[in-house]
Amino acid sequence: MNVLLTCAGRRNYLIQFFREALDPPGKVFAADASADAPALAEADEAFLLPVLGDPTYIDQLLAICQERRVGLLISLNDLELLLLAQHRDRFLAIGVSPVISSPMVVETCFDKWESFLFLKANGIATPRTYLSPATTRAALARGDIAFPLVVKPRWGSGSAGIEYVEDADELDLVYALAAKRYVPALPPGQHPATARHTMLIQEYLGGQEYGLDVVNDLEGRYVGTLVRRKLVMRSGETDRAVTVRDVALERLGETLGRRLGHLGTLDCDVFVQGNTCSVLEMNPRFGGGYPFSHAAGANVPAAMLAWANGQPADPACFAVMPHVTASKCDRVVVMDTLRVVDVEPWRDQRHEETVIAVRKVTRSK
């Protein structure tokens, strides 16, 4: 079993987690559009892909999977999830198990307005959300919400583009400026010029923030929920956290897993105020908070490998020791001597068709 992590970026730790879970001679590959992505230095073999908008992106990724006999495909980027979901059957056809949910699930999570509608329809608490200043002012007049409020991108990742407003004047000014400046990360095929309501307005949530990893198997069946209390955030990602056991949050995770039917991990942000657990966002992929659960005993990579091999996962993969506090730290990865595998299309003159070939290049010091 070989594993390929795409849009690997800075997720060096996931390379290591999968390597530790693999049986020899299985390998962990990494791909990214940037040859300087730090995770590439940790992989057994690194691949350079074009940007997501390139029309040959899927063909090049399929070529890597075929030539390197990839059995498990993991995507770490929201925009790529949407693209891969649309082509999931092509990977299954060549023997690859893509940990990619259906297009409907991915779009429900990526579009924060659709997330709001899904959560409300399933009776799950979530902040009141509006598409325009006009509807927000009407809610303020009714007393449904109160300042401060949050203005944020409808499609976005991390904390990019988020603003906080304290009164009606700020609301109009900030919303207009954000809508003008922020270029939304839209699903493939949707142009910013055609997108309506690219920003959202939400009520501000107080209380304690938690992160959940809601784990389903590769058939979309609920398996378990890993919970951590967030201690410090940095650039929209959990920087320090402590693992906890919380029955209410675990039940919330089970409800989400069963109602959504995603594959693999669902990274969720939840705010707890008194007895209310409000879901803020959902991401159907490994999130930046998973390493804290892994450090406390979880091993979702091992579970995914077992499922991809048609075997049951060891229940110990979802057993997390509570009260384990962990923190991320930066380190320097030298890229100058990295051997990167580039992928480029070439024309087969014998068959008059474009074939994707793998070309190796060695970067000089």
Walk me through what this model shows.
- 29% of the residues lie in helices and 29% in strands.
- It contains eleven helices and 17 strands.
- The strands form three sheets. The protein has a seven-stranded mixed beta sheet with strand order 5-4-1-2-3-16-17, with helices on both faces. A six-stranded antiparallel beta sheet has the order 14-13-10-11-12-15. The chain has a four-stranded antiparallel beta sheet with strand order 6-9-7-8, sandwiched between helices.
- Strand 1, helix 1 (12-21) and strand 2 (28-32) form a beta-alpha-beta unit.
- Mean pLDDT is 89; it is low at 346-357 and 359-365.
| Known CATH architecture of the largest domain | 3-Layer(aba) Sandwich
Radius of gyration: 21 Å
Q: Assembly state here?
A: single chain
- What is the CATH domain class of the largest domain? Alpha Beta
Which regions contain 5 or more consecutive residues with pLDDT less than 50?
A: 346-357, 359-365
- Major pleated sheet: 7 strands, mixed
Overall geometry: globular
Number of helices: 11
Tell me the span between the first and last alpha carbons: 32 Å
Q: Give average pLDDT, whole number.
A: 89
For this structure, the CATH topology of the largest domain is Rossmann fold
Secondary-structure content class: alpha/beta
Kindly state the number of beta strands.
Answer: 17
Order of helices and strands: EHEEHEHHEHHEHEEHEEEEHEEHHEEE
- Percentage of residues in helical conformation: 25-40%
- Our count of domains comes out at 3
> What share of residues are in beta strands?
25-35%
- Order of strands across the biggest sheet? 5-4-1-2-3-16-17
